Amino acid sequence: MKNDSNQENIIDLGETVLSSVTMDSQPNQTTTPPPDSSNNQNNHDNVRLIRVSKPIQTVKYCSNSISTSKYNFLTFLPIFLFEQFQKYSNVFFLIIVILQQIPGVSPTGRYTTLVPLVFILGVSAVKEILEDYKRRKSDKMLNNKKTRVFRPSNYIESSWSSVKWKDICVGDIVKITAGELFPADLLILSSSEPNSICYIQTSNLDGETNLKIRQGLSKTSLLIDSDHLKSFNAEIECELPNQHLYEFSGNLKFLDETLELPIGPDQILLRGSLLQNTKWIYGIVIYTGHETKIMKNSTSPPFKRSQVEKSTNPQIIALFIILFVISLFSAITSEIWLAHNSKSHWYLGFGDESANNFFYSFLTFFILYNNLIPISLQVTLELVKFLQASFINMDEEMYDSENGFSAIARTSNLNEELGQVKYVFSDKTGTLTCNKMEFKRCSIAGIQYGTGNEQEFNCYELLNNLSTHETKKEIDEFLTLLATCHTVIPDKREESPEIFDYQASSPDESAFVKALQRFGIVFHSRTPNKIKVKFLEEEREYQILNLLEFNSNRKRMSVILKDQDGTIKLYCKGA
């Protein structure tokens, strides 16, 4: 396989290695073990008990409203002042302001430093308030989003109502449609797809853009209308909120049947995930607000300082030491001069000075020389950073028209960090190259198909040999491998149901299934346990016994399938 930034990528497959297994086997069902119910009855502190679709829960749970703002009305002043006086220059000028309030010490007046310092802090406060207002505005938009919630009533035929995200409660049954984000952590009940399957994108959680499959319990797959949901009487017993995105354990208890089924991470839909390729799902809210897993993994916004700002503190200390030495030298020389000249210059009134004259002289010179550290430095930097952030936000050259995104300076304190970057480390694929892969040629049983020069791989010799050549069995197995050994999810087009779009985690897998589609070998259905392929005119169904996805250690992907004849085979695809 080659990658070239100036040429199209060529996929060259060697001979396929297959392993056949003769024994019968059942699919390996892997579920996360539920909490021990006997222990939970004695220790409810370690589990969460949720009454499904009931307005009153056993305990009061967290609100679904979230806040990512840094300040509130009461905490703004103490937090802001604490952060501002992390800057040594502000501490220095605060000392000068205090010294200027001592009578007979300041040669410049009591307010000459106080007013500029208040102005500096005021400019910083306005900047912080504006940035925090943007965070509050974003939180408000998210909290006021609406979704459909089922709250049963004996007087209203339809119990569905439009509810703001912030008003969603633990135990509510919600309906999410395609293209919507999940407002809380949910347990999937049913969906528009068979067997309660749904497809989600978790790029907001882990950065992965490929679709993932989630499947509800078969027992709840028939809960598809209001009548069924009204009669649904159940409780959920699960673990307490935690930050583990890929772990979950619990039980779903059917109270009318005294039935208890385990639930695991495959049944959980996390807040921030996006529903795709599925018209709708019903889910039970299990964690809300700051108890959701995405919020458990977030931290409070820290006070960030740039390298330039960090470097000014040692420089301020150096200037402070120089100022101290100059003031001390001036006070000493002043005392020496007075000792020799006070009598001859009696009209200046030096004889009336107290014994503390040296100390007062030192403070006077300290205040007089304080301009050695420029007070305008901080306010200038604050204004420049604020304007820079505004220019970044309005820069039309940094607008991505394809996705509708523009540059956003979330923290203006770090603008100058962009200028400190010397090296950018990046992987090659998809960043320095186009990452466009097309199926060009392959080799099966020693016979090469395709020259690599065609616009598309349309090798009719391969189809002819599939029916007549002595290697037709190997060709059949090769094409079956390409059609089944992947994690691609098909998406049927509404305007052309016979044509599929494919959601693939890697461009090579997408190239494989698209090339097969041109041959009439169409991968058109996937569930956690089955794969369906239209192989020319034949419909084939394979049962998935196990799937080992590609990883960097194995450098390959494997899938164990059982075909319609009961034969079990292991298909393996290398990097």
TrEMBL record:
Cofactor(s) needed, names only, are: Mg(2+)
Membrane topology of this protein:
Multi-pass membrane protein
Q: Entry's InterPro entries?
A: ATPase_P-typ_cyto_dom_N, ATPase_P-typ_P_site, ATPase_P-typ_TM_dom_sf, ATPase_P-typ_transduc_dom_A_sf, ATPase_P-type_domA, P-type_ATPase_IV, P-type_ATPase_N, P_typ_ATPase
* Enzyme Commission code: 7.6.2.1
Species source reads Brachionus plicatilis (Marine rotifer)
Question: Where's the active site on this chain?
Answer: 427 (4-aspartylphosphate intermediate)
UniProt KW Disulfide bond keyword: no
Gene3D superfamilies attached here?
Calcium-transporting ATPase, cytoplasmic domain N, Calcium-transporting ATPase, cytoplasmic transduction domain A
Q: What is this protein called?
A: Phospholipid-transporting ATPase
Q: What class of enzyme is it?
A: translocase
List ligand-binding residues for Mg(2+): 427, 429
